[in-house]
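Pilot study result, target chain (506 residues):
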Amino acid sequence: MSTETNSPISSQTTRRKALKATAGFGVALAWPNSKVIGANDDIRVGVIGANSRGKSHISAWEKIKGVRCAAICDIDAGVLDARVTKSADNQGFAVKGFTDMREMFDKGEIDAMSTATPNHWHTLAGVWALQAGKDAYVEKPISHNVWEGRQLVNLSRKLDKICQGGTQSRSMGSIQAAVKMVQEGKLGKIKYVKGLCYKPRQSIGDPGPSGGEIPANVDYDLWSGPAEMEKPLRRRRFHYDWHWFYEYGNGDMGNQGIHQMDVARWFIGEDKIAPRTMSIGGRLGYDDSATTPNTQVVYHDYDSAPLIFETRGLPRAKEFQENNWGKNMNKPEEFPDKGGISVVVVCEGGNVYCSAGGQVAVTDAKGKSMEAPKALPSKDIFQNFIDAVRSRKREEQYAECEETHISSALCHTGLISHMLGKPTSNAAILEQIKGDKVLTDRYQAMAEHLKLNEVDVAGNVVTLGPMLKFNPDTEWAEGNGDLDAKANKLATRNYREPYVVPEVKI
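Predicted structure:
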């Protein structure tokens, strides 16, 4: 390759051509006057999964002083080509491109990995990174199932590596201050906490018997990884709608909702999974090929206070399914002027609201607005990870992997109850839960929401899951009779060789 000209335009064009020729093959490109990777104490990060959230990862690492996005890995050659080219241009030095993360760990010359793959890859990507001697930033949910998340935590301890979860709400100073205020008892005892994911989710349709198309640039074996190589595909949109199938995703509770689940658990101060969990819900209001619930109430029966998680993908009424769906979602009853992707803490002396973006509002017991606490000093979640990589102090992390694991596991246990449930009539559901006033209230609110979307809940439409008992120490279902084996089978998965998460004992 000629490097005779020093013209900025010619150099840029040459660089892009070479990147396109080598993307995906682990080839390092050296450019005239480019910086030498590893020549100082910069932390070199490799990003895995660059199509959606991964773009944010790449941008974040590029902007942090003393950090370089040194390598990018993606199973879609077209995506990889674009991201490597742009990142190299942004940073002014060579960025390596890989299709297989194992090759990146071996040849990528990186110190840390960050991954934004589909959920079914999160844990294994983290495991392989730690085994290769790298620190790891693993997006939320940190796992696809309960068991594998614990293995990642155990491995980080065993190898003494830094492993950060992607529950970045913990880095927001406004939410930190709100949690501190509640935990200090300034609003009295917590009665219950609600995590809300009222986020518009329309039907994904059905690709029919021939199935959806696998993009030509995709290495489908690598994309599938631990999961079976499904053919034909049950979705038209390859790169996003995997969220709504259990083999790869965890529904919206494990997609957007994991952030609110994590903040809700943070408020009540619980550091283990709930001893009892129940789901009521379903995929309702339209027919499509997806399998995960779009409407759900999950009840985590902690001894300290209930944690309730509500998912609503339908708008507030049927008419809005054809008219501005996205701007007509439900709001929290306690804060009707606030957004529905949020956390509401209901205390004896008042309520607290935290939005997904970190907005905090406080009211007293009569609903009168109070002054919100002043935000605490904090750093960006990516900067926090880098600080911990340098200090080697796990406790400095806002979202250390065990924190994200426990909150991710709460999403998983809620889905396990749903998957073990049965379609049940409204009257039978109310009879089953009548002993719990809070759960009854939240179910009735969901039922009314469904009725406004013209879903007839009188018949056997809504799935009532069992109230499952879990051992918070072992994280296995215990004490449920014949349901234990079924629940525990769903708490892990059958891994496809060679994409197997290992058991890690410490």
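One observation from the pilot: The domain at 170-490 is CATH 3.30.360.10 (Dihydrodipicolinate Reductase; domain 2). A full batch analysis is planned for the follow-on phase.
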